[in-house]
Batch of 3 targets.
Target 1
Amino acid sequence: MVRAAALPAVGAPLEIAEIDLPDPGPGQVRIRLAAAGVCHSDLSLSNGTMRVPVPAVLGHEGAGTVVSVGEGVTHVAPGDPVILNWAPSCGTCHACTLGEVWLCANALNGAADVYAHRASDGSDLHPGLNVAAFAEETVVAASCVLPLPEGIPLTDAALLGCAVLTGYGAIHHSAQVREGETVAVFGVGGVGLSTLQSARIAGATTIVAVDVSPEKEELARAAGATDYVVASENTAREIRTLTGKQGVDVAVECVGRAVTIRTAWESTRRGGRTTVVGIGGKDQQVTFNALELFHWGRTLSGCVYGNSDPAKDVPVLAEHVRAGRLDLGSLVTERIALDGIPGAFENMVAGKGGRALVIF
């Protein structure tokens, strides 16, 4: 039996349950989790902002050790430390053939599968975003498993599976921040902290962190922020003041709210880039008038999974970790057990802390 945090229905509280996992079939891998990050996307799945089949075991940011492999799996073996990749590319859809693997049309097909059953009644369980990391063990497609590079602590490595790939990719792939540029990051959670560290790695000079909570200033500055702004109706004006009245070259929005996206846009200089990482609901409508689009000449872009290719980017991130440029542990503000996930959700809603990490 394996303990897991199951979502019985959209909007329902998570339940700690025992589940039956099958042995891995052809092309599958069974993994014993060491740690799983609690991401805002998990909260969005639980409340229906994003949709997946339920009942489900959520959790998509994880790392662990291979227990066993199915027929045909050769890139990992029992005992190997690995990272979970919740959005594996198929390699054949239109986006994949263009090299845009983060937009793979088939990446989430596995979420519709039945991967396990409740031990109590035999009812079906789906694997959330493919990998069902809120469990002591999981069985996933081999394409969802990446070997962990040497020299990376296994528990902290879980953060590479979503928060760090997203934040790093937002800076290096989507916004393509250059040395000497100025950056503003809206939202100082796990992804925002990763984005701040990545902006520092890219050589940004002024790095402004923005959040509703004054208590997050120390976290933000430790991650690389040179300035901290408590969000208000004057945020864009404050950021322009900090940048010679020009605005930043790049603004990265990690919240997913219309007002924050709009403020990030207004904080960007003429000709600058605004990248939206945050996942908002359909009710979050952002409006622009035609004249300002012409006049400001800014670029506004969405950013999925950091526009990253995990197979290529994880080794790069690992090198930053080994060199001391990227500090995974500093992203974690709370280490919890499975039954602590609902409390971590509450903290996210309240805007508290960075990343909560489930330790198994």
Target 2
Amino acid sequence: MRIGILAYDGCLAAEIFLFSDLLLIANRVARETGVASEDPFQVSVIASSASPVTAAGGFPIGAQAWHHDFDRLVVPGFELAPSADLDARLSGLSRETAFLRAAEARGTRIASVCVGAFLLGEADLLDGRRCTTSWLFSSQLAQRYPRASVRGEALIVDDDRVTTTAAFSTALDLATVIIREHLGDDVARATARITLVAENRSSQAPYIVESMLPPRRGQFVEDVGRWLVEHLADPYDLPRLAAAFHVSTRTMLRRFGAEAGESPLSFLRRARVRAAKRLLETTDRPLEEIVSLVGYRDAGTFRRLFVEQVGVSAADYRRRFRADTRGGENAPERGDRASRPVDAARRD
């Protein structure tokens, strides 16, 4: 399989080499295990001309001049901050987007890592397709390319020869998917275990930090949202909420929905899960106590809501993200006992 990785000024070098190095190791595994007699993957780093590309951070990357003799093209992301001028950044990549458009028209499969999805969008390759990108920029992707169906919590989305992935480390997930497709489960599993790569990640929802997402609210929603968080543990009471802001329940639902794109109850549920995540990360409180602290009386209802929003169970989330990792999979091998973290409920 011939794979070209499209390098360009400002791209993230690690996304190129994470992807290519995992395929390199898969080649070795396939040959050592007798699955293949020669390297199954031929990987090239390509660019608009055969000269070094300056990656983000100023690192030079050697590249071949691009051509169209590839089965698949992979587009890494680039350095991007939420406050950056995306129009200016993408306007400088018009040659790259034209190349991608031509490659897709020839039948080449296209994949992006992280915000490389914006280059696919500029090439009109996301129109009418499902796609994803880093959770931090998924709303921006959806706004810029309204004909795309952005799945902001998905880790990898494949739709009609176009594959998009979430942030940075999903270069490894993309490579693993390709290895599994072409060499089978055994080679994919062996490669993942040799390199300590997670084999079955399916969602980026557990990693989302909502406080880092761009605001999409007006002042009314900010005020109502603050009131809901202050009364997080209270039962949801729409008439009480409306009375607190001197409006009817109908007006409350209409104004909040128009500004926030969701109902007050939906906002409250997300706020409750967000508070539960902090408590799971930073305290030893039992789950039953956390359920009560964030306003639920039925633990089963909370568990279902948590899995629906986060993609993993509360117990799994605590194991992955517990700030004090004593005894966990990320625990350091040392004898000193970490100090007890601050109680998140008191900070709130």
Target 3
Amino acid sequence: MVRAKDYRHGLERDSRGRWTVDAVKQVSYDVLVRRDLLKVDDPFLADALRGCVAGAGNSSDRRLLIVDKVVDTLYGPAIDAYFIAHGFTTAKLVLDAHEQVKNWGSVDAVLAAMDQFGVDRRREPVIAIGGGVLCDVVGFAASIYRRGTPYVRIPTTLIGLVDAGVGVKTGVNHRAGKNRIGTYAQPLLSLLDTRFLSSLAVRHISNGMAEILKVALVKSRPLFEHVERASRGDLRVLFEDDQHARLADYVIEESIHLMLEELQPNLWEGTLERCVDYGHTFSPTIEMHAVAELLHGEAVAIDIALTTGIALERGLLSEPDAVRVLDVIAGLGLAPWNDVLARQGLLTEALEDTVRHRDGFQRLPLTDGIGTHVFVNDVTPAQIAAGAAFVESYVSSLAPWQESVA
């Protein structure tokens, strides 16, 4: 086929009058770790917020802040004092942000606040300060407002720091679908401050540790061993006690590094075999069927337990290692089992939905020993049932612990 090419613009037109548009979008964003971002006499945050839009033309010090309701209760005065001290003019939307309200209504509230504030399309990035749900909601709203408005993420939960705060996916739940509507939209900047973790309830520490365990099991035996060590201690002091600072810093920074190592070459998921989807094959359906009782990481932990049982059934994992994985899950304060797993056909339905999401194949990552993985496309209902039976048997042997966390 003969094509005439306009070399000035790189646009091609063939002999039948068809144009071929070939364009590349450059993506670049920074993920920065810094303790005490809200320390008033430290200009780091202010400089970062101004510097990330330095090339956008005339400067502006107006910022719209979208802040999680719980975060505002704990840190609202400190947030306000910092932005005032550093010369910003701000408006603030305080948003209730958790899985049960991760929906279009929350997105619409953010869009309305952006419109009322009159956010400049390029010079006034919206600032999201909160957990993973808030970061997802604000990122989605920013990505569709005027077809793309810049935003900055300051995650305040462990799961936000190691998962929602570092990638480019945004989204909200729709009907019965987990993150069924969303976009790929990178922030200008993600600012990670581990100081926020000292105010987290232990349940939310456990919730984030599930995502760290996920990446450890498929990518790093040393990280798994550090998580295992943490699971044998008191999670309530992991991010408070200086004695545990080295362990805490390692598990956070290594998990972020491993996540970004996987995400960077495949940001838009052109390749659907993603080892970071480990723990996310059955969990979206499990989570949406028990949304009132399970946090995201808790659903992921159940998926990890189930797929550990499947890996055992397929001979990819020894029984001692499979039990070891479930011991770590339990030690992190996470339940390996939820009664929703016993619902007739639920797990088969979950896998079928995942197959649709992964373009007609299971592409199911399983641990091949601790710290490595394989992808499989032939998991059977019998293997799923065997995996579930293994987990149920394990949990039944821990009846006293099971009652203590009920």
